[in-house]
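User: Here's a structure from my thesis project, written as structure tokens. My advisor, Dr. K., wants to see whether a designed sequence matches the one we expressed. Can you design one independently, without my sequence as a hint?
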């Protein structure tokens, strides 16, 4: 009898709060911030940052009490910030894996990961320019200016231009000076 009243109360509470509204319109934190500004930093969302620390715990939720799912172990690795909550940022790496990291572990320094094996970087932003170097898959490079199709990179003492579609860490429509 008590269980029946409790169930009725929960059902009434659920209906009153609208929790049983159309489930197909459910919005997740990741899609809620697309094309907007972060509620904490007022910076564009999503955006790219890099890992400042040698190691960063990636947690299931935005607090120290949440479980650590894994540890990022690559300084300067580019990450995509997709959500903010207080001092925590939800980030995603190039493989789509992510979680919550403390803001002190990330930097606004822009880097990219080479997503194409033996990517040729060139002296000018065009396919016929002189080859400067070849970068292996997974190399992290500092990101410079970007046009509509090419970005200027610096890695291993070399500087040159690479096609934007071969990089993780820069938006497809992003232009940088």
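Assistant: Designed independently from the structure alone:
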């Amino acid at each position: 009898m008590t269980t029946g009243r409790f169930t009725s109360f929960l059902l009434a509470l659920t209906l009153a709060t609208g929790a049983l509204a159309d489930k197909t319109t459910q919005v997740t934190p990741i899609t809620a911030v697309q094309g907007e500004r972060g509620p904490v930093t007022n910076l564009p969302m999503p955006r790219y940052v890099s890992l400042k620390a040698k190691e960063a715990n990636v947690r299931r939720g935005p607090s120290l009490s949440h479980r650590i799912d894994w540890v990022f172990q690559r300084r300067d690795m580019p990450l995509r910030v997709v959500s903010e909550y207080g001092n925590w940022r939800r980030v995603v790496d190039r493989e789509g894996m992510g979680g919550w990291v403390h803001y002190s572990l990330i930097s606004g320094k822009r880097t990219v990961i080479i997503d194409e094996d033996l990517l040729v970087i060139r002296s000018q932003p065009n396919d016929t320019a002189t080859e400067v170097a070849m970068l292996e898959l997974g190399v992290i490079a500092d990101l410079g200016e970007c046009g509509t199709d090419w970005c200027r990179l610096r890695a291993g003492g070399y500087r040159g231009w690479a096609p934007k579609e071969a990089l993780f860490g820069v938006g497809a429509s992003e232009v940088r000076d």
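When you compare it with your expressed construct, this may help: The first strand starts at residue 36 and ends at 37.
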